[in-house]
Amino acid sequence: MLNVLKEQYAFISSTRQVLFMFLEDIPLEKLHETVSGFGHSSIIRTHIHVSDCYLSWLGRFALKQPDFKFAAEFEIEHSNVKKVRERFDLVDEIVQKFLEEFNSRYFDKIANQVKWQKEPWSTTPLWLLTHTETHEFHHKGQIVSMARHLGYNPPDTDLV
């Protein structure tokens, strides 16, 4: 199963690279422009939110790496595609560690504290991986929609 999940993540990462290449051609001020109707308001803010989700659920929750910090407002406001790529390099490292750590234990229960609950929350590594990956695709759809609202024509980011 490990090889299948690694290959699946490689597909996800390759679609992310297509999105990054597209975003590199959009002026930085447009990447930070608020697009109404989207929960995280801008392309950069949404992309950082996606990386934070991976780092929080797989790094902090599953691997119990307490040093993870959500991107600070200053960091978000001064981000560009290169900085977001670097944040996803860290995501790639965490995903690989996660896959190695939970190899053949994807249905075992793991528990940890989440900030919005008093009691520790319990789930499986497979659920966490599924959640973070589908969360990325949900927001990738929002990012390409925001780009369209800003007047840009995104490439197909699903079929690589």
List the keywords.
160 residues, Four Helix Bundle (Hemerythrin (Met), subunit A), two-stranded antiparallel sheet, 4% strand, single chain, mainly alpha, 61% helix
Write the layout of secondary structure elements.
Layout: H1 2-23, H2 28-31, H3 43-62, H4 73-77, H5 81-101, E1 110-112, E2 121-123, H6 125-149
Antiparallel strand pairs: 1-2
Helix pairs in contact: 1-5, 3-5, 3-6
Helix content: 55-70%
Q: Quick one: CATH class? A: Mainly Alpha
E-strand count = 2
Question: Going by CATH, what is the homologous superfamily?
Answer: dinb family like domain
Structural category: mainly alpha
With strands numbered from the N-terminus, the spatial order across the biggest sheet is 1-2
Q: What is the domain total for the residues?
A: 1
Fraction in beta strands: under 5%
What radius of gyration results from the CA coordinates?
A: 16 Å
Number of helices: 6
Largest sheet: 2 strands, antiparallel
One letter per element, helices H and strands E, the order comes to HHHHHEEH
Shape: globular
Q: How widely separated are the two ends? A: 23 Å
Low-confidence regions: none
CATH topology: Four Helix Bundle (Hemerythrin (Met), subunit A)
Task: Indicate the mean pLDDT.
Answer: 92
CATH architectural name: Up-down Bundle
